[in-house]
């Protein structure tokens, strides 16, 4: 059981113990409800600066394109002038953005960069889900999501 799964289950059971109505045990929750609890725990962890690693499901490879180059990732990583994805751009911060997988989906989060991060021409401030075809701007550099 992953740490994310364990925390989600613990949080749900605490909620169940404190809730006045009768709620089913974790094992009887549907997949959608369990996924919602994992998402909630992941979001709380992100607010505290904690990263919860979740095993990457097969087929959850992230392929990004910058210019003519393709980059393949299978686990969480950072991008910027430093990190697993180097962005050679004076308007990019050293650790500009974090790419992370949660619940089998890829997300992106700005790491407090000076110039911000843009997803499909919109600046964002909290974690955002990314999908095939999305365009991410880091500084003046555009990164295209080929698969996610």
Structural features, described:
The chain is of the alpha+beta class. The protein has two domains: 45 residues, no CATH class; 86 residues, Tumour Suppressor Smad4, CATH 2.60.200. Helices cover 22% and strands 31% of the residues. The protein has two helices and eleven strands; from the N terminus they run H-H-E-E-E-E-E-E-E-E-E-E-E.
Q: Could you write a compact summary of the structure shown?
A:
With 148 residues, this protein is α+β, with helices and mostly antiparallel strands. It has helices at residues 3-18, 31-47, and strands spanning 62-66, 69-73, 77-80, 85-86, 97-102, 105-110, 117-119, 122-123, 128-129, 135-138, 141-147. The protein is built from 2 helices and 11 strands; from the N terminus they run H-H-E-E-E-E-E-E-E-E-E-E-E.
Layout of strands and helices, then pairs:
Blueprint lengths: L2 H16 L12 H17 L14 E5 L2 E5 L3 E4 L4 E2 L10 E6 L2 E6 L6 E3 L2 E2 L4 E2 L5 E4 L2 E7 L1
Parallel strand pairs: 3-4
Antiparallel strand pairs: 1-2, 1-11, 3-5, 5-6, 6-9, 7-8, 7-10, 10-11
């Amino acid at each position: 059981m992953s740490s994310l799964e364990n925390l989600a289950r613990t949080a749900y059971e605490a909620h169940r113990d404190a809730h006045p109505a009768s709620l089913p045990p974790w094992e009887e929750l549907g997949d959608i409800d369990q996924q919602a609890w994992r998402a909630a725990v992941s979001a709380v962890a992100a607010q505290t600066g904690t990263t919860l690693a979740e095993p990457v499901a097969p087929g959850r490879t992230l392929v990004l394109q910058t210019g003519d180059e393709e980059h393949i990732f299978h686990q969480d990583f950072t991008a910027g002038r430093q990190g697993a994805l180097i962005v050679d751009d004076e308007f990019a911060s050293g650790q500009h953005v974090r790419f992370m997988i949660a619940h089998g989906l890829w997300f992106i989060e700005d790491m407090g960069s000076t110039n911000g991060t843009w997803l499909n021409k919109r600046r964002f401030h909290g974690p955002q889900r990314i999908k095939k075809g999305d365009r991410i701007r880091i500084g003046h550099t555009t990164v295209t999501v080929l698969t996610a």
